[in-house]
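Much of what follows relies on a compact textual record of a protein's fold. With that in mind, consider the following protein and its fold in token form.
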Amino acid sequence: MRSGETYETLLYATEGPVATITLNRPETLNTIVPPMPEELERAVGRAVRDETVKVIVLRGAGRAFCAGYDFGGGFAHWDELITTDGAWDPGKDFAFATAPELSPTQQFMSVWRAPKPVIAQVHGWCVGGGSDFALCADLVVASEDAVIGTPYSRMWGSYLSGMWLYRLGLSRAKYHALTGRPLTGREAADIELINEAVPFAQLETRVAALAAELASIPSSQLAAMKLVVNQAYEHMGLQATQTLGPILDGLMRNTPDARRFIEIAERDGVRAVVAERDGPFGDYSQAPPERRPDPANIIVP
């Protein structure tokens, strides 16, 4: 594999016509902190500029694709962009959330804008902002035991990329938006939120085969077909949705309920506050073993 430029939060490598970008914070289930969004955008740009690359694969190291944004300390790692004198500044927050040069959502959307097809290889936890990110890819293939969901539907957030809405019909979109109920990889494929689900042992092989299939097609043809499909969804209001969603996300992170949520997380730990949020629903980390990812399913970069 060819390598070169190094990153703090991800790995980049190429083999033949395929570039693989691996989120590489396995000890924290690849939760999102800076500079991950910026590095992801940079890595995607690197693949786009490399004439030998025809397909991009996204995956996560360790036990998860991505468990969403790291909120253990609120959003302290982004404080300079969303606070003034230590207090939340809604003016700064909405500018940060929507500016293409700053917004994590827009940086993750680089996979949508890239002219080369992007395949998300999903395993383990793919929740919160991690699911918003994965669904920006052109094709999503998951292990059957993966868990895909938006627990922030219940507390501390709002849809960001809007891809849950555009990939689902109205009835399903409303159900998951209002309840936050997760799906296994198998269930997500069955309702066409994602493209395919396979046993974990077959995941890497299946993604490699799909990447090879795409790589056999001329790059100009791939770019043209991706662009025409993307434009159809842009005309459905995707940009407007991605403006409103992150603004609402900022508001939902700063309601009295949300502040209490973060206070508990800081005082008692993330596990405690997640148990309080999801316990009544019996899902996510509070689900029985058969509704959680198999912890033995690990991606080793």
